[in-house]
Specification:
By secondary structure, this protein is α+β, with helices and mostly antiparallel strands. The chain has a domain of about 45 residues: Double Stranded RNA Binding Domain (2-Layer Sandwich). The protein has one helix and three strands; from the N terminus they run βββα. The chain has a three-stranded antiparallel sheet with strand order 1-2-3, with helices on one face.
Length: about 70
C-alpha cells in the first residue's frame, strides 16, 4: 500500500488538490468531496502511467503539521 500527502486548498470556485510527491498530480472540484474523489483517481492514473513507462514510483517523503499561533 502506498500513502501520499494530499494538499487541499479552497478556491473561489471550489477546491483544488495536489500531491507534493507526485509532480503534476492535481485535481479540482466544486466541493471538497468531489475533489477528494478526483485526486484519488488522479493518483491512480499517475502511478499507472509511471508503471507503464517503466519509471520509478516516487516514495512519499512529504509531511504535514499544523502550527498554532496565538
Amino acid at each position: 500500500m502506498k500513502r501520499y500527502l494530499v494538499i487541499f486548498e479552497k478556491t473561489s470556485t471550489g477546491y483544488s488538490a495536489y500531491v507534493p510527491d507526485l509532480q503534476g498530480c492535481i485535481a479540482t472540484g466544486r466541493t471538497k468531496a468531489t475533489t477528494e474523489k478526483q485526486i484519488f483517481e488522479a493518483i491512480k492514473f499517475h502511478i499507472e502511467g509511471l508503471e507503464e513507462e517503466g519509471l520509478p514510483i516516487p516514495v512519499s517523503v512529504s509531511e504535514s503539521e499544523f502550527l498554532v499561533f496565538a
